[in-house]
Write a structure and sequence with these properties.
alpha+beta; Arc Repressor Mutant, subunit A; three-stranded antiparallel β-sheet
Length: 109
């Protein structure tokens, strides 16, 4: 199980990556995170991040008709969001390499 503290630092970058692949709406992001093995991330966790990304101008918002109710708010990456995602990926690679090196030499207890 991935703890919420571990997720907190990387969830924004993961959400940016999902948005970078295609226009998506909030609930769809939750479903995609679950499909990638993140477990059940509540919309109450995702929507504040989306709002922060919108205020930071990392995502663009559009509203589209839904076949099952009111219009949905869709998110796509802005140019600033694409830059931020590239930086996140670079930082993540550096961090995951360092943690892998640190943990790689240890035996399971």
């Amino acid at each position: 199980m991935i703890t919420s503290q571990m997720l907190k630092g990387v969830l924004e970058g993961c959400i940016l990556n999902i948005i970078g692949k295609q226009k998506v709406y909030g609930y769809e992001i939750s479903q995609k995170l679950s499909a990638y093995g993140f477990g059940n991330i509540s919309e109450g966790t995702i929507y504040p991040i989306l709002l922060r990304l919108e205020k930071s101008e990392f995502v663009l918002v559009s509203y589209m008709e839904s076949s099952s109710g009111p219009k949905r708010k869709y998110f796509e990456l802005s140019d600033a969001g694409k830059t931020n995602l590239r930086e996140f990926k670079s930082n993540w690679k550096e961090l995951s390499t360092a943690v892998g090196i640190l943990m790689g030499g240890e035996e399971d207890e």
